[in-house]
Specification:
Layout (H helix, E strand, L loop, with lengths): L7 E3 L2 E3 L6 E5 L8 H14 L3 E6 L2 H4 L20 H8 L3 H13 L3 E6 L2 H8 L6 E3 L7 H8 L5 E4 L5 H13 L5 E6 L14 H5 L4 E6 L5 H8 L4 E5 L17 H18 L19 E4 L14 E4 L10 H4 L21
Length: 350
């Protein structure tokens, strides 16, 4: 996929076409209400080789109302039977943890940023010098929130789960008009988890017209993320937990540390494998070139004897004339006596 969208700059690093994929670990609710566990997940992201870790900044009151009933009681999906308010109360990352998590992540060499869910969260994250903002799929239609994030002058990343092309276009245009320092559009399927056969990675090509593209991935394992990089994704986001068996709202679609390390290795290898598309042959072929076919004398030929299909053939190794020269050789005569096993050269042909 050709993508000429401009790169964005995050913490001095270029993210976009022509640069290695930016791998982001999503902490989300996998802290299970414990700061020490959240810090361990930050460490796991760094140890896995991720480039960044992302938090979520919200309170249950900023997300919904403390009521039950139709619409507020989750009817199906991974959180079936929960009240929205109770789910968000469990999942939120307390604001008082943010400074510690930002500092620890930065000390481990990670870019640390967050998904704000209301303009007030953007203001709070600005106090921590967040270098970039993420808009979640469920908030893509909240143009007020997008405007607040973009007005910081930082890049804005947007997930597009459930969105139409018109909604993506409107969100991207809103961010640019409000002053965002670049936009990254993440293809996303808001299925938790997403079966790989529903990942629809060809969607990346359609989204490329809106900006630099990446993938927010909820599928198991590394295969979909690696394939996305091969199709031009410049950013990969995956949820990270210490162990799925520990439970939590997001455990079922989160990776364990060794799986995240596989994502990092695989995505970087896939990007490196893309190359530059040139016809230039790579150095690894140097030792193989002698094994190409070429024209050899396969039976002793006396000086002046005709060269025929019985005494000249294209065989390995490749030190003689190219096989395409055979029609021009046959019927001509040997300039000198030629022994069997001699690579044919024009000076041997009369």
């Amino acid at each position: 996929m050709k993508n000429d969208a401009p790169s964005i700059t995050v913490d001095g690093r270029e993210v976009g076409p022509g640069h290695p994929p930016w791998i982001v670990a999503e902490l989300s609710a996998n802290h299970l209400g414990r700061l020490d566990r959240a810090l361990q997940i930050v460490d796991a992201a760094a140890d896995a080789g991720c480039d960044a870790i992302k938090l979520q900044t919200f309170t249950p009151d900023s997300m919904t109302l403390d009521v039950g009933g139709a619409g507020f009681d989750i009817a199906d999906g991974p959180w079936q039977g929960r009240r929205l308010y109770d789910l968000y109360a469990e999942a939120c990352t307390p604001w008082e943890w943010h400074a510690t998590l930002f500092a620890h992540g930065r000390a481990r060499g990670l870019t640390v940023f967050s998904t704000p869910f209301d303009p007030g969260a953007v203001e709070r994250l600005e106090s921590l010098a967040a270098p970039i903002y993420k808009i979640a799929s469920f908030e893509l239609g909240d143009l007020e929130l997008i405007t607040a994030a973009a007005r910081t002058g930082k890049p804005v990343v947007m997930s597009t789960g459930m969105a139409t092309d018109a909604e993506v276009a409107e969100a991207a245009a809103t961010a640019r008009a409000a002053g965002a320092a670049g936009v990254v559009i993440l293809h996303c399927v808001s299925g938790y988890p997403t079966p790989p056969e529903q990942a629809n990675l060809r969607r990346l090509e359609a989204l490329a017209r809106f900006g630099t593209v990446g993938l927010s991935d909820h599928s198991p394992g590394a295969a979909v993320a690696i394939a996305a990089v091969a199709r031009g994704a410049c950013m990969i986001e995956k949820h990270l937990t210490l162990a799925r068996a520990d439970g939590g709202p997001d455990a079922g679609f989160s990776l364990e540390p060794q799986e995240m390390a596989e994502v990092v290795r695989g995505c970087r290898a896939a990007w490196a494998a893309l190359g530059d598309g040139s016809a230039r042959r790579p150095p690894s072929e140097d030792t193989s070139r002698p094994f190409r076919r070429s024209l050899y004398v396969v039976a002793d030929v006396a000086a002046g004897e005709p060269l025929t299909a019985d005494n000249v053939r294209a065989i390995r190794p490749g030190f003689g004339l190219a096989p395409r020269e055979l029609p021009g050789v046959l019927g001509r005569r040997a300039a000198v006596a030629i022994r069997r096993g001699t690579p044919l050269a024009w000076e041997l042909v009369a």
